[in-house]
Amino acid sequence: VADLWLVYSKPVPANSRELWTLFLQCSCITVVIGGLFHNWMFASLEYSWHLSVAMAVSLSLLLLLTIFLVHPARCVFSMIMPTLGTKQGRKLLLSTCIMIVVVNVTPNIIRNIKAILQVIKCICKNSSESLLNSTALLDTASWEFGDAIQETVHSINIHRPMNGHFRFSLLKNGSLIYQQMHLAGEKIGKDFLAVEVLVKDSVRVGNKLVAGFSMLYLCFESTWYLKNYLTNLRFDNFYITKKLERLAVDRNAAHLLVGPSKNLIRPTGLKLSREEVIQCLVQAMLLTVALMLMLVVAAMDHLAFSVADTAVRKAAQFSVVPVALSIKYSVSAGAKIGILPPLLKLLQLPDKELPLQDFERSYQHYLTFSSAHCRINPPTPPNPSVLLVVGLLFCILYANAFLETYAHRLCRKIAGSFFESWEEKRALYLYKKLSRKYKEG
Hints:
Layout lengths: L1 H8 L6 H29 L4 H21 L1 H13 L3 H18 L1 H47 L22 H57 L10 H9 L23 H44 L3 E9 L6 E3 L2 H7 L5 E3 L3 E9 L16 H35 L1 H21 L1
Antiparallel strand pairs: 1-4, 2-3
Helix pairs in contact: 2-3, 3-4, 4-7, 4-11, 5-7, 5-11, 6-7, 6-9, 8-12, 9-11, 11-12
């Protein structure tokens, strides 16, 4: 591995064997990167398959020519890998988490809300239909009660301008109500569909922009690091490297490294400075805020499913409500209706008395609130695999927050292996700086 890295980091291959080795290395790297890039564009960013393949092939060919022919570009590309362990890598992973949540959780919430609205629509439709049908009960009762009154006065031969019946104007056809309810349901469904499409499109476009910006910034950050490494001797130069130790031993100044400054650390050690620890904690807190927001969305998904499932089950269990209409008309025994004699004489009718008859009847009706004919989509339970994937990604993000410092150190080691002569100048600069501080102290 050391020999392969030596060939890979050399500015110019020494012979044809090293040249072919470098070409094979670059070819393998570009094939792997092209495959990952295609999968990322097609599966995560949701580009078309043909566009993803075309972009992946173009990127692979361009990357192969660049890293094979240009030594600094090969160094920049090598530093991009550990740079993924820094803030830019966290942005890519975080955008992937957001995309997963929006694509999988948000539509499920909307589907469950639609199920709740379908239950409400079904109850309103059936209850209104049953209520409209109950008005026919009043018509029947009033007609029979009118018949009873007619029978009571049937023996009197007088002119009756009305037939003694109550008349109701009933709404026999509920098509207007059903039409209005159908239009309202259609409008609500279209509104929800528009919101779902808008959210998906917005997040998809935003995710693509963030991904594109992050990839460009990864290249920029690696290039910026290499530029500062090669032009500024003080930049990121506070490590006790092997070259610095060898230089101190050769000049009999090993005591300079015995009690180093608190800001001087070994690049291969696990020690973190106070500033590095604070930065890691701040990044972890920001990730916790993002995690809480995603957990709120997941909780909304579970809440919507719970409410929808309860509504569907309770709607199916609704029993019919019996409605009874009782009419009771009674007169005490022996009571009679007497017609006044003057009125009888005027109408030339015989004097008579009419007995009153009791009237008592009950009418039954049932109000229904649900029906098997209602079209209700079953609620969709949350997908547990989504939470599992998001949880694993956040574990990587938290680990990334604390490993960012070591990723920076790895970037420095890569740059030093590509430009060994410049690394020696940086070690000499740091040695002189420590010597000067030691003499002044």
